[in-house]
Write a structure and sequence with these properties.
By secondary structure, the chain is of the alpha+beta class. It has 4 helices and 15 strands. Strands 5, 6, 7, 8, 9, 10, 11 and 15 form an 8-stranded mixed sheet that branches. Strands 1, 4, 12, 13 and 14 form a 5-stranded mixed sheet that branches.
Length: about 350
Amino acid sequence: MPEINRSSDAAISQRTTVWAAQEMLEYAGAVQVLDKFGDVKPLPPNKGLVVKFRRPRTFTAVTAPLVEGVTPGSTAFGYDDVSVTLRQYGQVVEITDVIKDTHEDAVLQDATQQAGDNIGRTTEALTWGILRAGTNVYYTNGTARNAVNTPVSTNVLRGAVRFLKAQKGKPITRMLAPSNNYATRAVEGGYIAIGHTDLENDIRNLPGFLPVAEYGSRQPIHEMELGTVENIRFILSPDLDSIADAGGALAGASGDTVSTSGTSADIYPLLVIASKAYGMVPLKGKGSVTPFIYPPGKPTPTDPLGQRGFVSWKIYFGALILNQAWMVRIECAALDIV
């Protein structure tokens, strides 16, 4: 078997004794799912860092008849407020003049591309951390996370949908369009289940699963859509992390669920969401994403020989759950198929 030469860390190594093909290898880019189904409300610049979402409080049905000649008591009208504080995130990548002058790859260009991808990876990770901490949770077995060691089932999915319907959670009928102005586009209505790609095998084994390839005239709503079970559309991403070893003891002599340590099942959050369940707030307009590209070779008072250059970026971003009742987290294990 031929030997493969790989870099052992994030540093850039020179290749002086081997021939390097001109075509770069494909790299693992960011996979963004969550930004498509949230309520995106960009914040105009110079408006502070706190964004407040408001919704009118729902009236209850009036079931008592009026009494002749008697004015009924008044009903107070008010709003519920949910707020999020934007925070600043950023990254700095250093490139030296030696690398720029002697390396055969377009290092500055490649670093810029990777930095751009990492903006999406960062906002996805931040949003996932917020959403998987929601209050409504269903376990595939047991009554707590540390007991879970079974895969997702039809019954638990139906339980999640029943809960959303009882809370008047509406199916998702619009998603963020691939444009720069945060416009949305219409999609076929349904509840969306979002989770890690390790769950693919278990979802495909669910009774009645319909893969995207068999949709016919029906259109998938995302490139990572796997398929449908009843009224739930599944979208999976490798960037939506599981929780290592947080579940119950493995079943069977050698274990039959994915486990990081080999003793306890890894827990996979699977979010089943209705429309307007969560929101994301990027800073809009000039300064929303601030890139800096400073090539090496330019002297400065702190770098008089121009030995260092940088590719960097910074953003303002916030994510929040808008309505806990319109989101259910299913905690499940994933069968090991090896």
